[in-house]
Design brief:
single chain; 333 residues; alpha+beta; Immunoglobulin-like; 3 domains; 5-stranded mixed sheet; 8 helices; 12 strands
Length: 333
Amino acid sequence: MQRGLRWGCAFAAAAGLSACDHVQSALAPVGDESRGIAHAWASMLWIGGAVLLLLLLSLGLALWRNGGNGHARAGERTLWFGLLGFVVFSTGLLTVLAAQGSMRDRRPHASAVEPVHVRLTARQWWWQVEYLDADATHDFTTANELHLPVDRPARIELRSGDVIHSVWIPLLDGAQDLVPGRVDTITMTPRQVGRYRGRCAAFCGLQHAHMALDVRVDDASGFAAWQARQRAPASPPAARSTIAGRNDFRAVGCATCHAIDGSGIAAGSVIGPDLTHLASRPSLAAGAMPLDRSTLETWIVDPQRHKPGTTMPTVALTPEQRSDIADYLMSLD
């Protein structure tokens, strides 16, 4: 099976495709669920290839026996038996493939290890990620990033806040739809530390292409350290510009949509991403831009230019206000 996957990667590389870039590839699985999918794909590849070869050989034999004149020769009974055998053989192969897929879908996810509980809510066009704990005081929210511990299952509750979306992290699992008003659950068990990427796999509007989900699998200690940082409130501003930026953030209405835990800024409704630890994230606007001081200020100036249709409006700010707000947000690590 693994040889088939390697050949698939080699073919993709020869074709100039990034199918095995180990960031967003179904041919380089790093989780139990994705490996099950990859094994099913490899089975279909080899069985389908064998059937195709058999069909081509049968076609060649039929052309040779007919001599190219279109008249059947002796041995028609043998051909009919061969056809019947081929039908039975094909039916058996399809049954095997169907049973393999059904067994994978129905495989129990029981584990002796306590799973990580995550609630993933898709919105136009970003991801709200909530980490849930038996002690609700340990819950926290982030956006557009999913951190998971290696060798530990993650139970992910799926919701949609508006239209139909579909989450797909090829290296970890198959795609799963998120339907408004419906709650589904998937389980992922990563087996390799690294950075990966998920996407929305169902067209959900104008900015569907800019709806990436940054995924990072950490070792146990790294994941625990990340959780501890995320649970901590935002650091209070100390410099003049960051203090002014926090005041401007409140005054111009940014806090209407965005919450910042520990700063006294709590949004009345979840319209935009939680910004408590914004500066620790690798990208901005769900992968639309890399996150740094320059891109953040550019985004604040005119978000509609970089992500047309986003719910974030263009707010009239002075150059000093934009600079101070950017300084404040970049201090939230």
